[in-house]
Amino acid sequence: MPNNRKLNVFLPLLFAIVLALGMYLGHKMPAARNSDSAIFFRQNNRATLQEVLDLLKFNYVDTLDVNDIQQEAIEGMLSHLDPHSIYIPPAQVQAVNEDLQGNFEGIGVEFNITNDTVNVAGVIPGGPSADAGVITGDKIIKVNDSLIAGKKITSENIRKLLRGPNGSKVKTTMLRDGQLIDMVIKRGFIPLLSVDAAYMLEPGTGYIKLNKFSETSYDEFVAAVRKLTKEGMTSLVLDLRQNNGGLLDAATRIADELLEDRKLIVYTQGKAYPRQDYKTQKPGSFEKGPLAILVDEGSASASEILAGAVQDHDRGQIIGRRTFGKGLVQEPFELSNGGTLRLTIARYYLPSNRSIQKSYKDGRAAYDEDLTERYNHGEFLNGDSIRIADTVKYHTDNGRIVYGGGGITPDVFIPFDTSRYSAALTELYTRTTFSDFVYNYYITHRAQFAPYKTPEDFTKQFVITPELYREFLAYAGKDNIKVSTISAHDEPEIKTRLKAMFARQLWRTEGFYQVSNGADQVVKRAIDELKKSK
Predict the structure, then answer these.
(1) Which of 81, 371, 436, 499 is the most exposed place for a label (fewest CB within 10 A)?
(2) Is the predicted pLDDT of residue 27 greater than 60, yes or no?
């Protein structure tokens, strides 16, 4: 009896402990938390995919690369979602992150590979290689005692050899004028600039070319605006053509420099993400002057946010062709294998409440062919051929009608100039003939370029002579270009391209755009429109 009485006393306590432990364990199990079922235990279905992979790994008749199979399985799952949810393998994560961060760790040279020889095609001013004495035209023979000259080596392999942690050193042997020179280069942070060019198109009118939206884009943009303002800028051409986007934060911060305070720039909203508004917060560096934004079918995502906010608030004119049409927000999720899942979590909406995301209901193949379809439909040549996917009428601040559902339609349409590109020119542009010729000519005629101190001087004074033009044609012929098909109509385009490439050799992208914009019809139209605004 005494034992029974003790059991009667402790049994309820024991049941309570077991029940509490069961509830605790049930709460901790993902299956129980994510289900409306009252069942505490059930088999984890997530293991099925891993089970299949293990069976393949240990039992399949042939040896398999399980990592490749896993990647294909992930990509297969994502193919049923939107076109912008993607998996980034571990080997590619660093390169993707560097582009968004706006820098990488290396020695600061541009190079090309011809005849199994690595040539220094450009040296970043103020970078590690410039400090070590490397000059354009040097040939890299050895890297850390590894002979690379005369061997089948890829650009990717060269990058792996030359890049490394900031502050680390790399030993190189260069060939210059027939002499071998040993150089030790201390690696550093090399900027991946967002602003390709910032200069005055003409008195009062500034030009900024922005190639992406990275962590450094805002600071670069503000510095460019301040520089041009000191030079007398009262109106601005912001070139976003072929800018495929980047960080949302960079786009909204730059928009804050162009729009008045407390203006809605964009808002995002998704199933698991409540609406979040992004508004201007402070006085901007260029809120009042006439503004033109250049766009085309390659302008996407963050570019469309910036251009769309400017259009919806009637802040400036959008000039060019209809933009890409990407209105989805991705968030990166780091995976245990070192890869990254960039998953679409929300849509973004412009101040007029329109979404500019184009349809992907017909699958990724059709989505990827959209630009080709636009061209075939005639949209690149005629603004009236633009197909409006969303017929809902949205309104700007001043009551103008705008549309969503497939990119931003420009206020001023500029057709693609097909007359500029013959078959011969197209072949030249799709190969490295221009860049190879310019590099080889430059390193053997340095003295000819020494008098030019600025891109402005070069643009005004340098001339592609008939002799230089004939020399290029001869080089192109050796490069298997059908020179006989190059007509007199092609000559001005070729000369402009050559001059722009020489300017790039001297001053990188800043020089290139100062020359090439002189023949750019979209830039010329933007200047005219800004004059009307004034």
Answers:
(1) 81
(2) no
pLDDT tens per residue, range 30-39? 443 343 433 3
Active site residue: 239, 296, 312, 411, which one?
312
Residue 77, CB-side half-sphere exposure with 13 Å CA sphere: 9
What fold is seen in the domain 103-191?
Pdz3 Domain (2.30.42)
Mean pLDDT of 113-126: 90
Q: Is the pLDDT of residue 108 over 90?
A: yes
CATH 3.90.226.10 domain span(s) along the chain: 195-416
Of 353, 299, 351, residue with least CA distance to 326: 299
* pLDDT score, position 29: 46
Q: Where in the chain is the domain with CATH 2.30.42.10?
A: 103-191
Structure tokens at 340: 């990254």
Q: Name the range with the highest mean pLDDT among 74-78, 216-220, 476-480.
A: 216-220
Q: What pLDDT shows up at residue 47?
A: 66
Q: At what angle do helices 302-312 and 248-258 cross, to 10 degrees?
A: 30
Gyration radius of the chain over CA positions: 29
Query: Is it the case that residue 212 has pLDDT exceeding 80?
Result: yes
How far is Cα 245 from Cα 520, in angstroms, rounded to an integer?
A: 23
CA–CA separation, 92 and 338 (whole Å): 10
pLDDT-derived band of residue 9, with 50, 70 and 90 as boundaries?
A: very low
Q: Catalytic site residue 533? A: no
Instruction: Single out the catalytic residue among 209, 212, 263, 326.
Output: 326
Q: Which residues of 204-243 are buried (b: 16+ CB within 10 A; e: fewer)?
A: bbbbbbbbbbbbbbbebbbebbeebeeeebbbbbbbbbeb
Instruction: Mention the CATH class of domain 195-416.
Output: alpha beta
What are the residues whose beta carbons fall under 8 Å from the beta carbon of 97, sequence distance 6 or more? Answer: none
**Helix or strand run (H / E) with residue 259:** none
| Nearest CA among 313, 317, 319, 311 for reference residue 294 | 319
- What 3-state class would DSSP assign to 274? strand
Q: Is 285 a catalytic residue?
A: no
With vertex at residue 157, the alpha carbon angle to CA 155 and CA 163, rounded to the nearest 5 degrees, is: 95
- Does the pTM exceed 0.85? yes
